[in-house]
Amino acid sequence: VDWLTEKMRSNNFTVSSMHGDMPQKERDAIMSEFRSGTTRVLITTDVWARGLD
């Protein structure tokens, strides 16, 4: 996740990423950015399968 995020950012993509090892507050902040349109791409691991809200 982190590797792909950095590769995309280096190519001027607006990208956020999250994974299960992040604190919940950080994941919430990333989701807020994504939902508001601040970032257009969200890269995740299996955290989606466990629910985001």
UniProtKB/TrEMBL annotation:
SUPFAM superfamilies: P-loop containing nucleoside triphosphate hydrolases. Keywords: RNA-binding. One of its GO terms (molecular function) is RNA binding. The keyword RNA-binding applies. This is Helicase C-terminal domain-containing protein. Coiled coil: none annotated. Pfam families: Helicase_C. Residues 1-53 form the Helicase C-terminal domain. InterPro entries: Helicase_C-like, P-loop_NTPase. Signal peptide: none annotated.
